[in-house]
């Protein structure tokens, strides 16, 4: 092992030990509310950075820059859609959800909120929503594990095709995430997410700036660098309306990319941060911090993909490694430079871990609070329910590990599938639950089911000449799934019985309650 590799390894070990230490310090949880919502005591900075760090994942530092590196500025429409979704989520959903979950019997999870919002005595909403969480979070967590494995394979091995190092990285990433999530619960996750959010921001800002300095020093301008690196039409590559070959981007592609905004309304690991914020005052502060963080990070990640195409001497076969390769190229030489590069590479670890831990925790809450204590054994003690939740964390992590075993798996594809599933199944239901008094149980169940099933059919079933509808049409499943779920939920609600007066009174109370 070279001295450079050893230096980077030291930075990795120091970082991971710090995350485990935080988990241990937060390991004293008095009850399920502490473990799953941190006692609803998050401050503005912790809430904001935890929400955004858990949102972006390894996708921010690997998936997005990789897509732009490979296809050009036209892929930036995804980042624009994510920015729109972030802003709308913080301004429309955050405060109302925080208030309504308190009114709705102090709901600790999204499934329990649905059940309490509609006074569902049958438990069907809890079961359906919990199953959706388990299925799609297994896929989402797999994307984080895959990111970690690719990081280790590229830094300590010969690349993503190095199956031995990929497997070792996969095991290490999964183990560390499991340890501090298992120990500390929500507080550990949020505190580590705060640190990781700051590290991600520093890394994603510094690397493109340093790479651009290298580009201008060698070629004068980015356009000249792109020409020298084999881009036939640099102007087209840098255009919002063209792809890397200079062809116009289709309307369907733009709509699909902007459609990522719809996913935010249904992301349980983001929504639970809103539920845990300390007060209304903290919500207002958090939204400003979160939106500024997202604007900076998405812009920097997009620029990284473009600049790296002119900076790196060879075109990468796996474009999702662009951030890793750029760091390894910039921070080379003496021990200090290499160690700094190792810390910046930990930014990828931060992105990976900040999302995976949140997803595992939400899955644990769905199994513990919603399925086990909510349906299977209602008289179970909090201690036993908490243990069931922790076992669920391990089980889902194992499934995600198995999904991520393929070194050729695409981070972007895995995130896209999970994002669509949650956005289509939960997004319309969350919005209608918060802002439509007439909305009822039948509408919620039908809309949720239609959203989830539509995404599965659209993305996974090869029903058009051996290919999926999504691949054939190019239209993102989230767009069609969200629309169909919304339409069905509204129609079914209007065709069925109105909610009780008690439900209507709680709806009004949620509008005026102080938090």
Task: Provide an overview of this structure.
The protein is mainly alpha-helical. It has one domain: Sodium/glucose cotransporter. The chain contains 20 helices and no strands. Helix 6 packs across helix 7. It is globular, with a radius of gyration of 22 Å. The protein starts with a helix and ends with a helix.
- What class do helices, strands and sheet pairing give? mainly alpha
Average pLDDT across residues?
86
Q: How would you name the CATH homologous superfamily?
A: Sodium/glucose cotransporter
CATH-defined topology: Sodium/glucose cotransporter
- Helix and strand succession? HHHHHHHHHHHHHHHHHHHH
Uncertain regions spanning at least 5 consecutive residues: none
Sheet bearing the most strands, described? Answer: none
Tell me the helix content: over 70%
Proportion in β-strands: under 5%
Outline of the structure:
The protein is an all-alpha fold and 515 residues long. It is built from 20 helices and no strands.
Sum up the structure in keywords:
mainly alpha, Sodium/glucose cotransporter
Ordered list of secondary-structure elements with their pairings:
Blueprint: H1 3-25, H2 32-37, H3 44-71, H4 76-103, H5 110-118, H6 124-156, H7 163-219, H8 222-228, H9 234-237, H10 251-258, H11 268-276, H12 280-311, H13 322-330, H14 335-376, H15 382-403, H16 411-435, H17 441-460, H18 469-473, H19 477-494, H20 501-512
Helix pairs in contact: 1-7, 1-14, 3-6, 3-7, 3-11, 3-12, 3-14, 4-10, 4-11, 4-12, 4-20, 5-6, 6-7, 6-14, 6-15, 6-16, 6-17, 7-8, 7-12, 7-14, 7-15, 8-12, 13-14, 14-15, 16-17, 16-19, 17-19
């Amino acid at each position: 092992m070279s001295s450079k590799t050893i230096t980077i390894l030291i930075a990795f070990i120091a970082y991971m030990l710090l995350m485990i230490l935080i988990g241990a310090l937060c390991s004293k949880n008095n009850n399920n509310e502490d473990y799953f919502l941190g006692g609803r005591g998050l401050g503005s900075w912790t809430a904001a950075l935890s929400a955004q760090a858990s949102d972006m994942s390894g996708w921010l530092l690997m998936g997005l820059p990789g897509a732009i590196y490979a296809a050009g500025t036209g892929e930036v429409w995804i980042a624009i859609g994510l920015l729109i979704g972030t802003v709308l989520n913080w301004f429309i959903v955050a405060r109302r959800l925080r208030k309504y979950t308190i009114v709705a019997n102090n709901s600790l999870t999204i499934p329990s909120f649905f059940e309490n919002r509609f006074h569902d005595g049958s438990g069907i909403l809890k079961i359906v929503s919990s199953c959706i969480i388990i299925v799609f979070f297994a896929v989402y967590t797999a994307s984080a594990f895959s990111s970690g494995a690719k990081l280790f394979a590229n830094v300590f091995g010969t690349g993503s095709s190095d199956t031995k190092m990929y497997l070792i990285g996969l095991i290490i990433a999964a183990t560390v995430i499991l340890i501090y999530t298992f120990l500390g619960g929500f507080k550990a996750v949020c505190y580590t997410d705060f640190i990781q959010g700051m590290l991600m921001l520093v890394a994603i800002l510094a690397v493109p700036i340093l790479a651009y300095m290298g580009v201008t020093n060698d070629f004068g301008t980015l356009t000249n660098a792109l020409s020298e690196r084999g881009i036939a039409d640099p102007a087209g590559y840098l255009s919002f309306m063209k792809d890397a070959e200079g062809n116009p981007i289709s309307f369907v592609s733009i709509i699909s990319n902007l459609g990522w905004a719809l996913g935010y309304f249904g992301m349980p690991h983001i929504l639970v941060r809103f539920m845990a914020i300390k007060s209304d005052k903290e919500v207002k502060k958090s939204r400003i911090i979160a939106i500024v963080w997202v604007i900076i990070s998405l812009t920097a990640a997009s620029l990284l993909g473009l600049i790296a195409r002119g900076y790196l001497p060879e075109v990468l076969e796996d474009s999702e490694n662009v951030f890793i390769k750029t760091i390894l190229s910039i921070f080379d030489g003496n021990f200090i430079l290499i160690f700094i590069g190792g810390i910046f590479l930990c930014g990828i670890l931060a992105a990976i871990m900040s999302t995976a831990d949140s997803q595992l925790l939400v899955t644990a809450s769905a199994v513990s609070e919603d399925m086990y204590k909510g349906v299977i054994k209602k008289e179970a003690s909090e201690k036993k329910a908490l243990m069931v939740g922790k076992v669920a964390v391990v089980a889902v992590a194992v499934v995600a590990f198995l999904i991520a075993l393929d070194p050729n798996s695409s981070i972007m594809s895995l995130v896209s599938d999970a994002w669509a599933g949650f956005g289509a199944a939960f997004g319309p239901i969350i919005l209608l639950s918060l802002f439509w008094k007439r909305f009822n149980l039948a509408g919620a169940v039908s809309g949720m089911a239609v959203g989830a099933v539509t995404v599965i059919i659209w993305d996974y079933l090869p029903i058009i000449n051996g290919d999926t509808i999504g691949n054939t049409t190019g239209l993102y499943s989230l767009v069609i799934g969200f629309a169909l779920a919304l339409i069905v939920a509204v129609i079914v609600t209007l065709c069925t019985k109105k909610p009780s007066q008690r439900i209507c009174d709680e709806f009004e109370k949620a509008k005026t309650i102080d938090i």
